[in-house]
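Minutes, project check-in
Item: structure for the 246-residue chain
Input as provided by the requester:
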Amino acid sequence: MKQFFTDNIWLIIFLAWGFPLGIYRSRFRKLVYQTESWTINIKPVFLKEIKALFGNISPENVNYLKFRNFYRFYLGVYILLFILFSTLNQQESMKKLEIGDKLPVFSLQDQNGQLFDSRSLLGKKNLVLFFYPKDDTPGCTKEACSFRDQFEVFKDVNAEVIGISGQSVESHKKFAEKHRLTYPLLTDTGNKLRKQFGVPTNLFGLLPGRVTYITNKEGEIIHIFNSQMQAEKHVDEALRILKSLK
């Protein structure tokens, strides 16, 4: 449970603050447009609402003034939270690894509880590291199974395939057994390695990114492919680059 809150802290903050914001906006719109219908909350009419929010269209109406001030307050804090998130996210992305950088040294547990050390492959094999959002979700399953289906081809180009996400060892084990995955799935507790790589996020930071890093035998990053939607193309891109090394 603690891990869930850590991994989804921004989602929790936005939802928690957005709930009262939504309530006050709903009441405010009903006052402004003089209706009790809930449908006013989804109608695309904003001009009068904006004038009422930033102006004072009914100075004698106590309820209007009260809900306008509450709405202003919650909206202002919500905007500040968004700016804070955007700033922090930009700072993290500025530190991201690029082509030509050396692979960081790391050690993580795989789905069998065995410790994988990145140094074990230096000077021996090329490496394909794919960061994925979550075990057993549709896109991640397609990606993982595509890497499984091409596993022998990756062996032919002297490459080791490794998947990384923030779920537990137990979750990875179930995922690997269910889909007969033949390569290590590493548990990145607290998404520490993901942050060290500077893997970008999606949906305002609420969805972990899907990024594949390819390194040569010297541990140098030679290609990066970033696509949340084209899950299976990560495999094609990795093979294209690795075959070009021959």
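Outcome recorded: Residues 2-94 form one domain.
No further action items on this chain.
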